[in-house]
């Protein structure tokens, strides 16, 4: 045998061994992946589901008085402020599901010396505690190139709510929350969408320290970051927690810091690069633009619909491949010009206009005054009784309407309908 043939045999033998090694490794990894997938699907358990379902029932009815114990600005621009709320009655607070929100009823002073009542929802930004709640609220500036004023409720919180102020608060609620299973999880917060992610993360690291958690936090530059030292300390202390800050328009000094920074927006390419092959659940909160780009991209990546959970700022129209809520009925309402909407109290009968965003928008466009708050199905302010007919929801409301009623801000008429408004 020539030396060339001997070399060829040696190279072939080495290549075969390497191929067998990687083949076995891949097979073991794949079996581990499938086992974890089955565990996530089958062993999250009826007990966990029952616990979550029980926590969806409001802990108290109506509004309860809370006193502001602390007020802390969280960013260098002082545009995001945390309010620490203590129950005035001194009673221990029941746990909530991490990711849920509080609903506030505010009496906001007007220029004529009177007051205007507003109902607004803000995410809880910490793990459940028995002695208090925390919400972190961003001041909403006036929109650029617009005559619209700054956000009324956020400005009221920043300018008028002080330590010692008393606020009326409804019990925690909302269907966007972290599952109690041990499935690996990816938390994605864009801007002030970080607030429910903080609640989820803090709860998870306290209650499930062995659970794998990734947090992707996106802002324009470091001035908009909140609680960075807290998040970095958690990442250093918990080997199962992985933290990535994404700066879309970083300052010259930002990227020189190194560490947890990534230059660019949060997108599926970044997730592909960073995440290992595991059956992650994705929880996303942020501006509609973030959700409109990321949710379809995750679906195209092959993430099952049931593992993508999201919440937008205000009404959102994210197109899903698998619609859950009366899509055929909504399409019918958009197309059917024979539907008549009757407002009993106002005495108006109006032909439904295809393309209207909601019954609330339709009512307001026709001069009918309806109480409203979040305009996203969260606070229940626009709940009205249905006297006749049927409605269909564009999206699942976080507030559970009473039987025989609907939330005008997130529904359309399925048939001709009579509403008590």
Order of helices and strands: HHEEEEEHEEHEHEEHEHEHEEHEEEEE
**pLDDT < 50 stretches:** 32-50, 323-328
Percent of residues in helices comes to: 25-40%
Please tell me how large the radius of gyration is: 25 Å
Can you tell me about this structure?
- With 421 residues, the chain is of the alpha/beta class.
- The protein has 3 domains: 63-141 and 151-173, Elongation Factor Tu (Ef-tu), domain 3; 179-312, Rossmann fold (3-Layer(aba) Sandwich), CATH 3.40.50.80; 327-419, Ubiquitin-like (UB roll) (Roll).
- Helices cover 29% and strands 26% of the residues.
- It has helices at 3-42, 46-55, 152-160, 194-207, 228-237, 268-274, 288-301, 327-335, 359-365; strands at residues 63-73, 80-87, 101-109, 115-123, 133-138, 166-173, 185-190, 213-219, 241-247, 261-263, 281-286, 308-312, 340-343, 348-351, 383-388, 391-393, 405-407, 411-413, 417-419.
- Strands 4-3-6-1-2-5 form a 6-stranded antiparallel sheet, covered by helices on one side. A 6-stranded parallel sheet has the order 10-9-8-7-11-12, with helices on both faces.
- A hairpin with a 4-residue loop joins β13 and β14.
- The longest helix is centred in the N-terminal third of the chain and has 40 residues, at 3-42.
- The radius of gyration is 25 Å and the shape is globular.
- It starts with a helix and ends with a strand.
- The relative contact order is 0.10.
């Amino acid at each position: 045998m020539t030396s060339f043939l001997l070399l060829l045999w040696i190279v072939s033998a080495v290549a075969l061994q390497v191929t067998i090694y990687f083949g076995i490794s891949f097979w073991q990894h794949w079996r581990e992946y499938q086992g974890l997938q089955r565990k996530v699907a089958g062993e999250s358990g009826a007990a966990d589901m029952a616990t979550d379902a029980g926590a969806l029932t409001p802990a108290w009815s109506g509004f309860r008085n809370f006193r502001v114990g602390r007020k802390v600005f969280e960013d260098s621009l002082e545009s995001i402020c945390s309010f620490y709320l203590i129950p005035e009655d001194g009673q221990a607070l029941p746990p909530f599901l991490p990711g849920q929100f509080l609903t506030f009823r505010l009496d906001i002073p007007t220029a004529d010396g009177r007051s205007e009542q507003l109902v607004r929802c803000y995410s809880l930004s910490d793990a459940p505690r028995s002695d208090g709640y925390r919400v972190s609220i961003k001041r909403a500036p006036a929109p650029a190139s617009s005559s619209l004023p700054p956000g009324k409720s956020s400005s009221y919180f920043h300018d008028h709510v002080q330590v010692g102020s008393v606020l009326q608060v409804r019990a925690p609620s909302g269907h966007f929350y972290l599952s109690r299973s041990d499935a690996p999880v990816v938390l994605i917060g864009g801007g002030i969408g970080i607030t429910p992610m903080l609640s989820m993360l803090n709860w998870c690291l306290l209650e499930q320290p062995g659970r794998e958690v990734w947090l992707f936090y996106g802002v324009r530059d470091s001035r908009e970051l909140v609680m960075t030292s807290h998040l970095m300390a958690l990442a250093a202390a918990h080997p199962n927690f992985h933290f990535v800050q994404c700066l879309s328009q970083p300052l010259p000094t930002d990227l020189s810091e190194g560490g947890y920074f990534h230059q660019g927006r949060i997108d599926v390419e970044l997730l592909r690069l960073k995440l290992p092959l595991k059956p992650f659940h994705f929880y996303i909160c942020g501006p509609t633009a973030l959700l409109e780009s990321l949710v379809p991209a995750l679906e195209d990546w092959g993430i099952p619909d049931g593992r993508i959970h999201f919440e937008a700022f205000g009404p959102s129209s994210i197109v899903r491949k698998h619609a859950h809520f009366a899509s055929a009925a909504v399409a019918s309402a958009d197309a059917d010009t024979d539907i008549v909407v009757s407002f009993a109290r106002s005495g108006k009968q109006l032909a439904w206009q295809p393309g209207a965003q909601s019954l609330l928008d339709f009512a307001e466009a026709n001069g009918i005054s309806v109480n409203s708050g979040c305009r996203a199905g969260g606070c229940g302010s626009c709940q009205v009784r249905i006297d006749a007919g049927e409605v269909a929801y564009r999206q699942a409301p976080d507030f559970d309407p009473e039987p025989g009623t609907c939330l005008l801000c997130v529904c359309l008429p399925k048939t001709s309908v009579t509403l008590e408004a």
